Amino acid sequence: MKHFTSEEWIDFVNQVTSSNQQNSMRKHLETGCKRCTGAVSLWQKVRNSAATEATYQPPTEMVRLAKAAFSTAGWASRQKESSSVIELLFDSFLQPALAGARSAAIGIRQMLYRADPYQVDVQIELKPEGNRLVITGQLLDVSRPDIVGGEVQVTLSNHRGAVIHTMTNQFGEFRGEIENSGDLEVSFPRPDEKPIVISLRNALDRLPGAKP
Question: How far lies 12's CA from each of 2, 22, 30, 32, 37, in Å?
Fold first, then answer.
């Protein structure tokens, strides 16, 4: 007894075979062939399922719940993005210096930043001899006050090719010296996110509008 292939039965169910082929396959089914009858039954179920899927409309309540879930996920992503912004909390160059300390403090700048999860304290000082900047600072993990930012690699760059790598100590403190080009960049990694980069153009030039 000749059996027909799966491909032939798929064409039979979809009614794309020739009339002669259709008749031959129907006569074969009339013989009671269980193998081919099972194949026809399977592919008819597949065709019916595909037709039902094309016209399926999910319940309105399920659509509403799905939209609400994706909306919440998008909000969480935007919140995470906005929380990664570096915020300047304090800059000594924006503060009026005391009259007797104005000339003495002209080569020192202190800044405080918030860059989740860290609070970053940075001081820039021009060395009296030579043309070098001394950068000292401290990282504090504000999300875990009992843990300081120890053993974090800090990278200093003067935007002129000089790069210095240093490491925070057990208290989250770091120190480094770099040739003074006028500009400065301080960067360090952040867990599971883009690194924190603090870039200062004319690092020791008092900002426009600041009081001398």
Answer: 16, 7, 15, 17, 12
Query: Average pLDDT per run of 10 along the chain, which is 212 residues long?
Result: 78 83 84 84 79 64 55 42 70 68 63 88 88 91 70 91 92 92 90 82 66 46
Q: Can you state the angle between helices 6-13 and 34-54, rounded to 10 degrees? A: 50
Residue whose tokens read 């039979």: 12
pLDDT at 79: 40
The structure tokens listed for 209 are: 């509008």
Phi, psi of 195 (to 5 degrees): -65, 155
pLDDT in the model for residue 190? 78
Domain ranges of the chain: 6-54, 87-200
State both tokens at 23: 């008749």
Out of 3.40.920.10, 2.60.40.10, 3.40.50.1970, 3.30.450.20, the CATH code matching 87-200 is 2.60.40.10
CB 37 within 8 A of CB 29: yes
The two structure tokens encoding residue 137: 């600072």
Give the separation between CA 182 and CA 132, rounded to whole angstroms: 10
Give first-to-last CA distance, the chain, whole Å.
104
CA dist list (Å): 68 to 20, 57, 59: 55, 18, 15
Distances (CA, A) of 10 to 19, 29, 183: 15, 14, 72
What is the pLDDT, as a whole number, of residue 67? 54
pLDDT value at residue 74: 44
